[in-house]
Write a sequence for this structure.
């Protein structure tokens, strides 16, 4: 899919919270394995339901952001899903959402996808573990995701209603959901709407309008509040709902549904907060990257200071470094956490993360100027890097700083294929790359701050 910036990079004074969060939601679609724009489409569906219910402006505001950010915690269970099911976490998540509600369908999916291609004994052991501990596994995965999502939403200054809506996303009307097995009206309204909107979009994207309507109706009274199903049927009777879901201008259309009082300037402090929040989403994807984005950003700011980068530009550089790996949300943990050398196909997918970073940040108008800088952190001065094969004449100072910080942190942190290196060993490896991957001035600055 081609991604287009929502607004020009110099529109910082007029960018709205709705535009910013909507653009960032595409990163969440990546880690859930959903077609690009899933959260935006779910927000389109859920916002129409909220309006059909006659919700007040403040309620519509909180519903809107619950829908866009419903998957904030989804990266935090990716590694666990990959390990438990011995499967591509993104493909597993995507496929699981299209499974019906029957036990037979769920069992068939789990058996068919778990440890596929592994030797019989290992596959049998993995399936046996899931059947034996299925309830505990489901509780763990959902609680981890819901807790993490709510915590990040809180760090972004959203209301308790938004945080509760995200936390309770997987509760079911009949009490069969998680994490608290709440029943009926005890489930927050925004969570009830978000779950219904999620399922409607998944089935619409998978099999069309009739499939979405049919699946929502089938889950009425079990997963879904029957009153919300009725409200969905009302809005689904209008062709405009479905036309919007297919529109290439849906991002802009959705912003028109944002309550007017939310269209306000997003200042530098908030941009810092959202960069830090999504840095946390990125780092939660793998146990081997915990804290990586934050450390790279800290190193980058300190090296920037040592190299005379002005304070406003250092703040900008810090954001770029926090978000440099956002494209890794689109890489399976089967690759990220593999304790052996990647094969050619796996390495191609790993390299794609840099292009994903460009695509995601490039569509966020207020941050689009840092997209090419962040996305180029695997380029090399000798032209042998990726994704574009840039050379020294095309790689700017900020990218060179992020590159050396990423390199140093990767060497001095645990990785699936080796333990963390000591400072001197890491610096020796980096020094050997001066003129190839590494800028000499950046190396000298690194030695002063590492």
């Amino acid at each position: 899919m081609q991604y287009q910036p929502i607004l020009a990079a110099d529109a910082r004074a007029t960018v709205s919270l709705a535009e910013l969060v909507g653009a960032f939601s595409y990163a969440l679609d990546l880690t859930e394995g959903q077609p690009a724009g899933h959260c935006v489409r779910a927000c389109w569906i859920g916002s129409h339901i909220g309006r059909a219910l006659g919700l007040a402006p403040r309620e519509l505001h909180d519903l809107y952001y619950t829908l866009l950010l419903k998957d904030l915690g989804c990266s935090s269970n990716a590694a666990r899903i990959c390990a438990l099911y011995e499967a591509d976490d993104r493909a597993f998540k995507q496929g699981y959402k299209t499974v019906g509600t029957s036990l037979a369908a769920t069992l068939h999916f789990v058996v068919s996808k778990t440890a596929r291609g592994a030797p019989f004994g290992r596959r049998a052991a993995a399936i046996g573990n899931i059947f034996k501990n299925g309830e505990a596994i489901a509780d763990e995965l959902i609680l981890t995701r819901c807790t993490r999502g709510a915590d990040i939403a809180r760090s972004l200054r959203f209301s308790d209603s938004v945080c509760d809506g995200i936390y309770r996303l997987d509760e079911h009307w009949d009490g069969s959901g998680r994490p608290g097995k709440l029943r009926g009206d005890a489930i927050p309204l925004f969570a009830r709407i978000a779950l219904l909107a999620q399922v409607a979009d998944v089935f619409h994207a998978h099999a069309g309008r009739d499939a979405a309507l049919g699946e929502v109706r089938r889950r009425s009274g079990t997963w879904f509040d029957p009153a919300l199903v009725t409200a969905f049927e009302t809005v689904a009777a209008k062709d405009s709902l479905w036309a919007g879901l297919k529109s290439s201008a849906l991002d802009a259309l959705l912003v028109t549904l944002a309550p007017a009082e939310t269209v306000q300037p997003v200042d530098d402090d908030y941009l810092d907060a959202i960069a830090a929040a999504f840095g946390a989403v990125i780092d939660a994807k793998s146990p081997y990257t915990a804290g990586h984005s934050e450390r790279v950003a800290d190193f980058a700011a300190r090296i920037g200071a040592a190299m005379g980068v002005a304070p406003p530009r250092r703040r900008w550089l810090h954001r770029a470094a926090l978000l440099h790996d956002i494209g890794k949300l689109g890489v399976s943990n089967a690759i990220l956490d593999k304790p052996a050398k990647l094969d050619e196909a796996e390495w191609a997918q790993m390299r794609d993360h840099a292009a994903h970073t460009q695509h995601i940040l490039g569509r966020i108008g207020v941050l689009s100027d840092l997209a090419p800088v962040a996305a180029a952190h695997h380029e090399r001065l000798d032209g042998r890097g990726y994704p574009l094969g840039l050379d020294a004449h095309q790689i700017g100072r900020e990218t060179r700083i992020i590159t050396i910080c990423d390199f140093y942190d990767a060497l001095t942190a645990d990785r699936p294929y080796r333990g963390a290196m000591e400072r001197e060993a890491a610096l020796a490896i980096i020094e050997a790359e001066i003129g190839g991957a590494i800028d000499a001035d950046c190396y000298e600055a690194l030695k002063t701050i590492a």
Remarks:
- The chain has 23 helices and no strands.
